[in-house]
Amino acid sequence: MNLFDSHCHLENEGFQNDLPEVMQRMAQAGVRRCVLGGSDLETSRRIVALAKKHEGVYGAVGVHPHEAKTWTDETEAELEGMLTQPRVVAVGEIGLDYFYDLSPRDQQREVLIKQLALARRMNVPAVFHVRDAHGDMLEVLRERRGELPAGVMHCYSGSVESAKEYLDLGFYLSFAGPVTFKNAHKLQEAARFCPADRLLVETDSPYLTPVPLRGKRNEPAFVQYVAEVVAQLRGVSTEELADTAARNACRLFGIPEE
User: Fold this and answer.
1) In sequence order, which residues have a C-beta less than 8 Å from that of residue 33 and are 6 or more positions away?
2) How many CB atoms lie within 10 A of CB 4?
3) pLDDT at residue 116 in the model
């Protein structure tokens, strides 16, 4: 199998006691590459170190909307430096989160706009986090049509209607564990609808463990279960879906295919 976990968090403290074993299971499951998503400067630094150390591990560095309140000019300068490091391929995860509202919404928006500009300036894609904020997110993106970096809606959670808007702006959609949940009809419809050349799969591990392993800590090896369900929804084999999603991820992140 040729699997690519397009978004996970191996830098998370939940993996600190058994990371070598997690990476071994990842390889055994056929997960050849993964991209880690940064939340703030501290996690982004850890990601840079892991990407430098492990072949097949790539990094996105950035400030999550939860942490927007911590942003300074120094943050931007450090992120810019990180983007010159080996296997650091994107800015992220960036966006808007109105579910938790851990940073003021105007600040979330301002930091999103600054990081969009950073990705564009550094010629790398953006990894987007959006929760309960698709309307405002689309407004920010539409206002900048023609000046946007490439990008992916990580752990896509929206409707087919929102999917059409993001796809129209040139973005990819990445599906995670929730697409395997029994009642995720709206999300499953979006996974059926997504054009084959814009589709990625991910775990977002250690969060959002897919069926049939709910209740366990998630890890990159489990992306096979996401790929399996998305393949069933689309009427293709898991191998074909995995190959397609891996090829798309390599194209988006500028990673050579094997």
Assistant:
1) 4, 5, 56, 57, 58, 246, 249, 250, 255
2) 29
3) 99
> Distance between CA 24 and CA 44 in Å, rounded?
23
Exposure letters 101-112 (e unless 16+ CB within 10 A, then b): eebeeeebbebb
Integer angstrom CA distances of residue 213 from 3, 32, 91, 96, 155: 18, 21, 30, 29, 18
Beta bridge partners of 33: 4
Which residues of the chain fall short of a pLDDT of 50?
A: none
Q: Please tell me what DSSP assigns to residue 208.
A: S
pTM exceeding 0.90:
yes
d(CA 247, CA 256): 9
In 3D space, the residue among 128, 21, 118, 129 whose CA is nearest the CA of residue 77 turns out to be 118
**Pair of tokens at residue 136:** 């405002």
- pLDDT recorded at residue 70: 97
Strand, coil or helix: 106: helix
Tokens of 247: 């090829």
Centre a 10 Å sphere on the Cβ of residue 33 and count the other Cβ atoms it contains.
23
Tell me what pLDDT residue 258 has: 74
Instruction: Identify the three-state secondary structure at position 217.
Output: coil
pLDDT value of position 165:
98
Buried b (16+ CB within 10 A) or exposed e, 198-222: bbbbbbbbbebbbbeeeeeebbbbb
CA pair distance 141, 163, nearest whole angstrom:
13
